[in-house]
Every structure is written in C-alpha cells, then in structure tokens.
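User: Structure tokens for this complex, please. No commentary.
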Amino acid sequence: MINLFSFIPEILILSLILISLLIGLFYKSSKNILTGINSIGFLFIAYLFISFGDSFEGTESLLKDFNVIILSKIIIALFTSIYLLLINKSLVNESIYRYEFLLFILFATLGSFVLISSDNFLTAFIGIELQSLSLYLMAAFNTKNSQSNEAGIKYFSLGALSSGFLLFGISMVYFDNASIQFSEIKNVTYFTEIGLTLIVIALFFKVSAAPFHIWTPDVYEGSPTISVLFFATLPKFASLIFLFRFFIEMDISSYSSLLFIFKFVCVLSLLIGAYGAMTQTVIKRLLAFSSINHIGFILLSILSFQFLSQGIFFFYLIIYLVTSFGVFSILLTLRSNLGEIKLISDLSGLKTHNKSKAIALLVLFFSLAGIPPFAGFFAKFFILTASMNEGLIYLSLIAVLSSVIAAFYYLRIIKTMFFNEGEDTLQENSMFYHNITYILSASFVTFFAFYPDPIIFIINNYFS
Amino acid sequence: MDFNFPIITLLILTPIIGALTLSLTNSNHIKDKTILIAGLWITIGEFFLSLLLPLFYDVEKNGYQFIEFHSWFEQLDINYYVGVDGIAIPLILLTTFLIPICLLCSWKSIKKRVKEYVIYFLLLESLVIGVFVSIDLLVFYVFFEAVLIPMFLIIGIWGGENRVYASFKFFLYTLAGSVLMLLAIIYIVLASQTANIDIIKNINFDENIEIILFLCFFASFAVKVPMFPFHTWLPDAHVQAPTSGSVILAGVLLKLGAYGFLRLSIPFFDFASIYFQPLIFTLSCIAIIYTSIVALRQEDMKKMIAYSSVAHMGFVTIGLFTLTNDGINGAYFQMISHGLVSAALFLIVGVIYDRQHTRLIKDYSGLSIVMPKYSFFFMIFMLASVGLPGTSGFIGEFLVIISTISINIYLTIFTAIGVVLGAAYMLLLFKNVNFGELKEKLSEIKDLEFIEIIYFSLLGFFVILLGVYPKILFNLIDKSVGLIII
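Assistant:
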C-alpha cells in the first residue's frame, strides 16, 4: 500500500509542470506569470518540508525520507525558486526564450527529488534519467548556435553511455541478490562488487568527477550560461546527495576495491581540477575544472563521513551552491560585443567598469580558492578536519596542495579584473534578480565568518 | 587594572568600519585628497587607541590581558579568543604607527584609484592587528592568511612594471607554506580537542610527530620571515611594490613570521625547537652572509635594502632559536628596530624615486649638496641599519651575538661577519648616493618637503629613543618572554 501523503511535494511539482504547460501553450506572453507561479510553488514546497518534514518520514514504500533528504530537498526547492527568477532575462538577452526551458527545469527538479529520496535502484535510475534528459535539452537549447548543439549531443551520447553502465551495474547487482532494494544488497561476491563499481562510475560521471569528467569543459563552454548555472549546481547537488547516501547505505567502505576507487577518483579530481584549469582562457571551461576540483573535496568529505561529516558535507555543498550562484549571476549580467561573455580577458578592467560586481567576484573567487576569512575557507577547513580525523593524511595533503594550485587560476581572473585597465568592450544589462542574487551571495560569503551560528544551527538541528 | 572595555575588538573593527564607510562614498563627488585625509585620520585615531594598550597594561602580571572571548565553532572548541601580552603590544604599536606613515608617503605618489588604496591599507591594518592579538589557533590562521589579500592587491595594482609576476609569486609562495601549517593546526586541534594557544602550550606531543608538526609550521613562517632558501619572493615583491607597500611589507608583514615562531613554534614544540636548532642556525647564517654579499652587488637600491632585510631577519631567527632570555629579547628588539629602520630606508628610496623615477644607484651621486636634510635622515637610518651604538639597530644585534657565544662560537663569528658585511653595503650605498660629484640631471632636485620631514623625524626619534633607552621596550616584553622559555 503506497502512502500518497509522502508524495505530496513530487505531486506538487508535477501539477506545476502541467499548469505551466497549459499556460505556456495558450498564453504566448506569459513568461513572468510562469516564473512567478513556479517560484512561489517551490517556495511553498520548501515551506512544506520545513514545517511538515517529519511527517513525510516512515513510509516503507518506494520512497524514503529522513533528515538528509528533507534538508537537501529544502535546499533544492529554495535554490530552484531563486534560479527560476534568473532565467527569463538571461534567455531573452540571448534571444532564445521559449517557455519549454522552464519545463526542463521542473522535470529536472522532479528527477532530483525522486533521485534523492529513492530507496531502490529502479527509482534512482528513473530519477537520474529524468534529470539527465532535461539537462541534455538544456545544453542544446540555443539551437542556432552550433556549439550549443554540439554540447547537447556530446552530453547526450556520453550520458547515455553512463546510463548504460548504470543499468548494467544494476542488473549485475540484481543477478546476485535478487533484489533492487538498497537494504537487501548483502552478498559480497564479485558480481555485486563489479555491479556496484559500475553504478558508482555512472554516478561519478553525473557529478563529473575525474577521470569521468571529459564532457564537462566542452558542455560548459558550449551551453548557454544560464543552463550551465543549472548543471553546475542543482542536479549535481542531487547526484552528490545520492552518492553520499549510496556510500553510507551500501556500506561502501567495507569493499576495499570500491574504497580504493573512491580514493583514486578523489585524488584525480583534486589534481585534474587544479591542473586542467591552469591554461584555460575560456571562463566557463575554467569554472568547469574548478568544479571538478571542488568535487574532489566533496568526495573527500564523503570518504571521511564518520566525523560530523553529514553536517560538513552539507556545509560545503551549501557554500558551493551559494558561491556558484553568485559567480554565474554576475557572468550572466555581463556581455561582450560578440554576445555572452566568453574569455577571461573579456573581464579585463571590470573594476573600473563596475565596482560592486568586481568586488563581489573577488570575494567569491577568493572564497572558492579557500582563502580566509571567506566562507569557502571554513568549508574546506571542516572537510580537512574530518579527513584528518579519519586518518586520511595523504589525501588531505593532496587536497591542500591542489587548492594552492587552484588559487593560481582564481588569482588570474582577479588579476584580469583588477590589475588590467579596462577596455570598452564590456556591456552590462541591469537585471534586478541577478543583482540581488550576487549581492546576497557575496555578502553571505563575506559575513559568514562573523556569524556562523545560523548555518551551524541548521546543520546541527538536522544531524543531531 | 580592571578594564572591561572591549578595546581589542575595537582595534580590529575600527579600520574595517572606516574602510566600509569609505567604500560607500561616491568617489565622483569626493576628491582623492579628502579620502586620503579621512583615511589618515582613521589610522591616526587607531594609533592613539592602540596607545591605550601599553598605558593600561600591567607589566607585573603573567599571561594575557584585555581578554575577550566569544564562542565560534563549539564542536571543536574554536573560539574568538583575543588578548594581548608583552610581546604583542609593541608589534601592534609598530603596525598602527607605520600605517599612517604609509598613507602620508603616498600623498603625491599614488594618483590612481586612491579610494581603493586607502581601503586596502585599512583592511590590512586590522588583519595584521588580528594576527597579533589572537590566542586561538584558527583565529590566528584566518588573520594570517587574510593578510595576503590586501597585500596582493596593493602590489598588483600600484606596483611597477613586473607587478603581476611579483604579486603572484608573493601570494602563492606564502599560501603554499601556510596550507601545510593549516594541516598541522588541524592535527593539533584534533589531538588536543581545543584551539586555545595557552592550553596547547602545555600539551606534549610524541617526538616524531612534533618534528613533523614543527616542519609544517616552519614552512609557513620561514617563507614569511623569509629564511634563506625561501626568500626569493621578497626581492621581487619589494622591487615591484609601491613605496608604501614595501614599507608595510618590511615593517610589519615580515614580523608576522617571526612572531609566529615566537608565539607558536617555540612554546608548542619544546623538543623540536632544540632538535632543529642547528638547521635554523645554519640557514640563518647562510642568510646573513649570503644575502649581505648579494646586497653588495645590487644596482637597484630597493633590491639592496630588500636583501638587507633578509640578512637582518636572519639575526632575528638566530636570536629566537637560541632559546635563551638574552637571545629572544635581542631578537625581539631587532624585530621592532628592523621594522622602523627598514621602513625608513624604503621611504628614503621612495623619496628620490618619486622625484627621479629611477632606483639605480649609478643614477645618483652628490645628493648631499642639493638635499642636505635628506642626507641627514639617510645617515641616521643608514647608521641604525649598520648597528651603530646609540641607535636601535645596535642593541638587538648585540644581544643576539652575545647570546650565541654560549651556544657555538662559530655562530658568533659568522653573525659578527654579517654585521661587518652589513656595514659594507650600507656605507657603500650611502657614499654613492650622497657624496661625490653632483650629476647634472640632479641639480634641480628638491629637498624634503614638510610631510616627509614629519615622518622621517618621527621614525628617527623612535630609532634613537630605542637605541638610547631600550628599557622602555624591555620592560614591556621581559615577563612575557620569560614565560615562553620555560
């Protein structure tokens, strides 16, 4: 017997999708109404989780809710509602607005919700596919631009390959255990081990951990920036939460081979993320590699999950989400003569051009680089604390050294903005929601250290 | 004396609030001079505020005073825990004294983006003060690292031709050292379940672990001091930085490393400090002799003084690691003295650079004919740098050399040779610039202006005061230094 009550948020999203579809079909000039409705809808979903989160717990059926899931759904709902406010103007600026974009986001978010709370491999697969299919379409959304199409095709073909891995892994696990329920996977034979390895590899692909990262720079470069903001944040967040749950519930640390793969991927992500970005001149490619480096840190926190780690893991993710939103919303407001801002050198002289944006980017990049007193430093500090506590000293050493290398390319961007004199190629659009977003995120990152209590409180509250 | 006023937080926050206020002003309507004046008043106010510290500090008491405590991250017992003791106060005063001078010396030389410039100096001031007052490891690290940001921007925006290279080298070198210290700090915090420096001091680590931890801290502080093989960022940074940047870099930022050794490495790692004594003595001796010889051959004045900084800081590290009362007192004195003297020497170079836009020694000669006041101040600071008795430079070096005798006589010989070499290059520099025939290009050069005379006389006054009456400093630090050696 399925308890429909626990599906309410998902049903709400589904109804939002249907409503948006109808409105979009029949009222052509409806973009603000659409974003308004959906944004409020997601705020309402977040509110539902905050006030009634506990009552979604305890269902024995396909979905399973507990604190990690509730908190991550709250975060996803809140950030989606912010993201929805950003899309209209960004798409209109590129003159590629169509209301379908919004539907893709809704479908992807629905997929994320399903993925996060899935308790067996089949729902997880459905969640991942729902999410990924929307992402492929979003990558190729600028249909007039060949690079965007290329990005979509690349993303799709590699994504399909990884889905193949995932399905194959699931079938191997099923073959051995005669179950797809997470809790019933007990046999430790080669089949289960290989199956789990394949599943983990597919997940690594989704979160773009090295060496499964090859698609990331190309897709980031080709896709419209507004889609990249989405790729870089929410679906990745959902996949990471799932990976985290998978790691704990499957008790991955008891399989030595899988543990080795995790560590290997972690080190490789840290190093490739750091070295890959050194020579990049395209800003989105650089951000792609920077995200790979951050994935390395997140994997490190998953590996050292025992010590306060759920909290630390979330802490890092929240700060990463906030920072990415800030960075991308600034990039979205800037344009060069040729369209979207592309090269790092396009940013030159941003300081003389627009002070507040330059300072916000400075703060955000220093935070990404993990320089105190910005929030990114504390995120990294806690991850390193957890991993040192776990005895992963060499991994921690590699992590901090990679962040020194990473600091180099963040400094390059800052150098371009601050040290170079401006050329007049930079144009700006005044976009209300983008400005609000970056100001909020930059001030969060700056003032976090002065008053960390709220975040610490939230995390403690959900993980005590 | 009971003193419940949160003076330390006020010291940290005043420049930050000043910077925020300045950043909110609209620079189109306000003249650059007005902003400089506002910044100057803030920093002068800060200086007088910091004067409260020595006035109300009770030299008889042990331990920290003016303590403030707020919990920060409770799970790991990391707290905003600040206070000062005898070895923090003089460095805070040095900082608050030098920052207004930095703003004064840029009165004419900084023409672009003045508002930003003032803001970065204000931020730098509060971050540096934060380093000196923290009694919590993480608070210390946060301030220690954050200092990089404003300094990076100061070198990068207002520096010379090669400024990007210099600022990157400065930032990455220091960061690479510091992250190792971060790992060591995390290890210590996890092992001792607290980040309180006062408690960690009493915890004994296993000897092998202590050695590794010491090396991690060493990586960070040795880059900052800088010690011999890690010093290469310093000449670049100094040559490319604007005058005020060099002043604050030599005057205060180098002291952060030495302060770190004194505050953290030596009290935490009793065994490792003795174990690594020979290494540090060797590196410091090499630094003193080698960089002095390198300085002899420099053609660029700023580079010469930068190398002399490395040599003088070599005395500091030797003194600190003698682990004797005399040695540490001497090293500390040398820190303060070097902070004043090298700052003054960079200002001296800055004065003629502003007028002639060249720093090459061969472009100058006979300045004493047209710039008598300038030559007078140059002489004072040159002699202080050489270590003439009666100036502050003498006492520090003298105490350090004395304290080495009981440890190793060769050490004494090498440091003494270092003093002689120091005299050689400084006297050569002074001779070439001030004496000889006046070059034609220089005949129009103007002597010191009013503002310049003010700050040079202030610096000169303190250099001579400390040289004649060193007791004012020793009174303040004696007790705290005594606590470190035990």
